[in-house]
Write a structure and sequence with these properties.
This protein has 147 residues and is an alpha+beta fold. It is built from six helices and four strands. Helices cover 44% and strands 18% of the residues. A four-stranded antiparallel beta sheet has the order 2-3-1-4, with helices on one face. The model has no long low-confidence stretch (mean pLDDT 85).
């Protein structure tokens, strides 16, 4: 990974007081040499890795528990992603955003709990695999009960 590589990042907002347009204005004011595209979920920013990473950090610092950043595999306006070139329909990846978006309030809530020191660490335990004979017995009992 070179600092001069061109990358794209998605800035996904789940904020009650920060709008995509607010972030766009801040980016333009910073005079960062990047491309910015406002979207339904937030922004897409593209440019040299070092610049994009810095802008992403600055944007996230505005509301760190409600602004989420992830790297994007294709640049803005890519013909594969653009609906104009594909004849309409949802963009590839849209359904993933649609699936992830409802989880953002839970992530925000968890981050805020941790920030307040209320987050309780959960110790993960790994259960051992059951013996095959025990598994067969469970199946036989379930089948017998369903008859």
């Amino acid at each position: 990974m070179n600092d001069d590589d061109i990358i794209s990042k998605m800035i996904v907002l789940h904020s009650t007081f920060t709008l995509p347009s607010d972030l766009v204005i801040r980016i333009y004011e910073s005079k960062a040499d990047i491309t910015v595209k406002e979207t339904c979920f937030g922004l897409i920013i593209e440019g040299k890795r070092s610049v994009v990473d810095e802008v992403a950090r600055e944007m996230r610092s505005l509301d760190p528990n409600r602004i989420f950043i992830k790297e994007r595999g294709v640049p803005p306006g890519d013909p594969y992603r653009c609906r104009v070139g594909r004849g309409g329909g949802p963009k590839p990846g849209f359904h993933q955003h649609e699936l992830e978006f409802p989880f953002l309030p839970y992530i925000t809530s968890a981050l805020e709990e941790i920030e307040r020191g209320e987050g309780k660490g959960t110790k993960m335990t790994r259960s051992l695999p059951i013996h095959i004979e025990t598994f067969k017995d469970i199946i036989e009992k379930e089948v017998a009960q369903s008859k």
